[in-house]
Amino acid sequence: MKRREFITLLSGAAVTWPLSSLAQQPERTRRIGVLTGAGESDPQGQSEITVFRQALQSLGWKGRNVRIAYRWADGDVSRMRTFAKELIALQPDAVLAVTTPVVAALADETRTVPIVFVRVSDPLGFVSSLAKPSGNITGLSNFEPSVAGKWVQLLKEIAPAIVRVSIMFNPATTPKSGLDFLHYAEAAAKLVGVQTNAARVNDAADIERVITAVAREGNGGLINLPDVFLVGHRDLTIELAARYRVPTIYQYRYFVTSGGLISYGTNALEQYTRAAGYIDRILRRREFLTFCWIRHGHLAARKAWAAHNNVTRLRMPSLTPISASGEERWIHPGRRPRNRHLFLVHPRSGGGRNIQARGH
Fold this sequence. Notes:
Layout: H1 19-22, E1 30-36, H2 43-58, E2 66-72, H3 77-89, E3 94-98, H4 100-107, E4 115-120, E5 137-141, H5 147-158, E6 164-169, H6 179-192, E7 195-200, H7 204-217, E8 220-224, H8 228-232, H9 234-243, E9 248-250, H10 253-257, E10 262-265, H11 268-283, E11 292-293, H12 297-303, E12 328-331, E13 341-345, E14 355-359
Helix pairs in contact: 2-11, 3-4, 5-6, 7-9
């Protein structure tokens, strides 16, 4: 048997795929499944899938040599499970899985079909080891749970008057039911002198209930956890947070472009380009796949994640990234927290503490 070649992209051990899934058949049209937690009508979800499709085309997968089956779960866990069964029944050569609950649904259906994930906060639920991942699942992670501490710190920095922070999430669609994020948020809250409250939501009415309660109590802020359910309801969250003047921090830039106050997170689109490269190697029977981490600066160092991107600083929108990837922090100039301060950014200031509050 010809010795396998392992290509390491960043760091960590290679993942080997079952030979039955990797057998090279150049004359055959390849089949790719795509299962995303977003809704088909979500423009952000469409943009992300478009980036993935264009990346595949740039790698030569277009026309008659590939067929792609798409499924959109719209934040519904039961739909994720149903669509996971459907896609695996099609016997794809590889599947792109978007968000943690989607990966969980697919993992229940197959141990042989290669699954490449994006936007997963904690892959340890799907692999036995980060140092030596194995099996049929690999991909790109966007957050480690300890970043929740940074969200607390930034929220306190831009709204110094807050004394309590509500952490909103749907337990059914947030990784590990949100418990890991809560742990790190609570630890950071003690350091900055605020209280935390777990705000669990299951529908749109719950979102309105949480935000109105924060506004009614006064001197409160809100953290919107990485959650495909909350992504699908982001317009409602942003509108209510603005109406009731509740300082809220999000994870992705597109929350700010939609009117949110501030975000701190990774470049969501870049992961799809990299995922296309992973799938290209699967289809061409190049056995390599290691875990690729979108890092969070000094937070990643504690977890020994691969150095990959540079930290950027808060910018006023234009909303043009400093770099094509990596950490992003954005603030919307038209949103003012409850304490009626207008937060400005000094463009020449570096590092993390680069916001000054100016009286209104």
